[in-house]
Amino acid sequence: MIGLIRKDFYLNRKLILAFLVMCLAYAAIMAFAAIFIRTPGADSPINIQFFSIINTAMFFLCTMSVQSIMIQSDLGKRTRYYFCASPAGIKGFIASKYYESFLIGFLVFLYCELYDLMLSVIDGKLLNNSLLHVALLFMIMTLQSITLPFIVGFGKHGPHIKTAILLILFICCAIYGLFGDISPFMKEGGAISMLREMMENTDNASILAWILGAAYPVLICVLLAPHLMILLIYVSFRISCALFRRGAMTYEA
Amino acid sequence: MKLDKKKALRSILILLATCLVFVLLQCYSYAHWQENEVLSYVTYFAFLFSPLTGCVLARLITREGFRDGILWPRFLGNGKAYLLALLIPTFSGFLGAILSALFLGDGLDIKLDGGPRMAILTVLLCFAQLYYVAFITAGEELGWRALLYDQLEILLGTNGAVILGGILWGVWHFPALYYLGINFGKDYPGFPYLGILLMCVATVFIGAPLWLVRKMSGSVIPACLFHGVIDSVFNGFLTLFLTQEVAASHTLQVGIYDFVIPSVIVGIPSWIYPLRLGKRKMQTPTAATPGQTTNEA
């Protein structure tokens, strides 16, 4: 299975190299900005927390694109038939896609941790957003686990079908938002204020304080979320395995 | 075989030398750098990941590499190992909390302010942070279970690996035991020697199931999860049955009831099981020469 992952990394080496260069260049520019904007001896005029959040959001979004491209590589009809007969089998082949997706996410998680450390060293104040990074890693894995069965089941049309479904959901939400009753979401302690609060406080201590201060049902949902995500990834894996052969038919040779 | 032993010894020495450097650095950091939060944070994580650093260095220097796929999760077909990795420490943590509550005379009723509602939340919180903690414990597991125990087994056999590996792992906790008073506190007779001794006893026995799940799966990931559960669940369960005052005033006893005794209880069967399995495996036809018949087939 390690060979399968190596193969996908090799096939997408240019993309990965470009992504790596982008990460390093971004970190270098931000380090440069943070050092030169900072006034020595005075309180730091830069908000390193803001720098960190922008970096985290940007790179986790980019990671999703890289993951999607990676997992779609080498999924043609002949390849699929070949892997049905290979020692790794269908399960091994599908598992390798999940593993490589996790691997890229994990590397970006490490990058974000190192980036935060760099900002901490520059500013002299400790920046600890690791809980947020782990949460985002889980989230992107969840999103990929939704995408993968679509790709496996519907071939190259998979991402379009997923986008179409998401678009329909978005339109439904937008229509409800425009014409429905949104007062429960907007009130104090509602979903919107909770989201705003979460986005404003992203360090570990604030996240923990927010979790512990949330209402009981919300708290139960938050605490069960990591396990449900694991379950979702497993269900997604089983669906992908079941759809593998059928998906091969939707590809051109 | 002789070459293997030489290589194993080299790997162990590299790992231990690396760990020693970071242990000393961490001691220095606890003593002098606590005001500088960035520096103390960096040295703390460098210390936590020192076994991993040692493992990487040892595997690079001895040219062993990572071809054994120790980092590979191997989920498929290893459900039993993963299940044990979650169940053994959970049982152990729960047992420790019950023993502490019984022996320290506080009874088995829930001591948390919110009652059962809060107890459910505490247990859920413990398990929710498991994945995050497992990331951190990977730093230790990749050194101890992915290298030290395996190499010690080549040199000293299974029993020697569990005993010496556990002792070395326990001694590695010295900076945290001495400066922070983890597990046993600081206010007890014989500090810090008794604490180190108890820690070594606990790590010898808890190392056995950790190594068991690592060997069962051929991957270090179940061991990381196991260690993650230990670190996240043990204290959480304790708060269910023990008030803060009792826990703070009996740190040594709490450490013994909550950590040492449960470790011994789950450690013994996990230690015996691979030994018996090993003997049975040695009796299988591998030793049979061509032409010789065996009963098993």
Structural commentary:
The complex is a heterodimer of chains A (253) and B (297). Chain A has one domain. Chain A has 253 residues and is mainly α. In chain A, 83% of the residues lie in helices and 0% in strands. Chain A is globular. Chain A contains 11 helices and no strands. The two termini of chain B are 29 Å apart. Chain B has one domain (68-275). Residues 282-297 of chain B have low confidence and may be disordered. Chain B has helices spanning 2-32, 37-48, 50-61, 79-103, 116-128, 130-172, 174-180, 193-217, 221-241, 244-249, 251-283. Classes of the chains: A mainly alpha (253), B mainly alpha (297). Chain A binds chain B through residues 1-2, 91-92, 95, 99, 117, 120-121, 124-126, 128, 130-131, 134, 138, 211, 216, 219-220, 222-227, and chain B through 37-38, 41-42, 69, 72-73, 75-76, 117, 120-121, 124-125, 127-128, 130-132, 135.
Structure characteristics:
heterodimer, A: 253 residues, mainly alpha, 83% helix, globular, B: 297 residues, disordered C terminus
Helix proportion of chain B: over 70%
Structural class of chain A: mainly alpha
Structural class of chain B, by secondary structure, is mainly alpha
Count the DSSP helices of chain B: 11
Strand content of chain A: under 5%
